[in-house]
Amino acid sequence: MKSKLIDDAKDYLVAIAGPVLYIFGVAGNSFVVIAVWKKRSLRSTTNCLLVNLAISDIVSFLFLPLMLVQSTPLNPDHFADFLCKFLISFHIPATANVVAILTVTLMSIERYHALVKPMKIRKRLQKDTIGHAVTGLWISGLLLTLPYYIFGQYDEDYLCCVVGKRTKGFIIYELIFLAVIVFVPFFITSFCYFQIVRELYFKNKVRPQNVPSAAEEDARDKRKLVKLSLSIISVFGLFMFPLFITLILKSIDDDTFKRYFQIAAAFFFVEAAVNPFIYTFQSTNFRQAFKEILKHPFCA
């Protein structure tokens, strides 16, 4: 009885909050893409990475309604396997999610080289190489999640999509994959921002006497950019860690932790919808661009 009440409450919550989250997520992240596309002044390497982050969030949202079909029984045939591999399972959102993690990590490395090692220009992303970097991120995301597409299938006994039939080998792969995709980026990002904060806030630097205002303005701009990046990464980590922890636990015991995974997955989509609001509150340039889009939505 209690379990049924919880399931009913969850269904009502999904029915009410799901469409709102979907609209805000797709619209908000689309605004980010359009803003950078329309305003030439926003086309920095960091903002191009923010666009890639927004696109990965949009991809996740576009497949969210299809994932609700998983609970619908299908005819056990090759078409059902195809649906489970590519459309109604979490595989494409998982790829987009991995791309988002790699994008955030690359953003941290880029900020580190720009602010801590500014003289090493060759190690920084340039406008003519950012496209190659983004392509590499999506290829890497696809390769890392490829086993989900290969081993995804429709289970006739449980009448749902499964991956790898929960074999020991696949569980080991999943645990290694989750550990690598969570902890390695976490340590890289933590190191980069620790060094950045140390460089900007705690190192004593000699300021030029002839142009103090220019130096101070440059320092303020750098700190604003760091605050924006830190806000994005902090929110990303806050919402993503519960998802990955429950994924690891679900790999070990699927039946016990399946419900917790669903709750954590909902928080992931909340994070994807929140990002555009962070840009709005933290960045004057994005705020101005969003206002222009709302005033003149059909102007190129």
TrEMBL record:
Keywords: G-protein coupled receptor, Membrane, Receptor, Transducer, Transmembrane, Transmembrane helix
CDD domains: 7tm_classA_rhodopsin-like
Molecular function as annotated in GO: G protein-coupled receptor activity
SMART domains, per the entry: 7TM_GPCR_Srsx
Membrane topology recorded in Swiss-Prot or TrEMBL: Multi-pass membrane protein
Tree of life domain: Eukaryota
One Pfam family matching this protein: 7tm_1
Membrane among keywords: yes
G-protein coupled receptors family 1 profile domain ranges (all copies): 28-279
GO cellular component terms listed in the entry, alphabetical order: plasma membrane
Transmembrane segments: 12-37, 49-68, 88-109, 130-150, 170-194, 228-248, 260-281
Gene3D superfamilies assigned to the protein according to its UniProt record, in alphabetical order: Rhodopsin 7-helix transmembrane proteins
Cellular localisation: Membrane
SUPFAM superfamilies: Family A G protein-coupled receptor-like
Family affiliation: Belongs to the G-protein coupled receptor 1 family.
Protein name (Swiss-Prot/TrEMBL): Somatostatin receptor type 5-like
Organism expressing this protein natively: Actinia tenebrosa (Australian red waratah sea anemone)
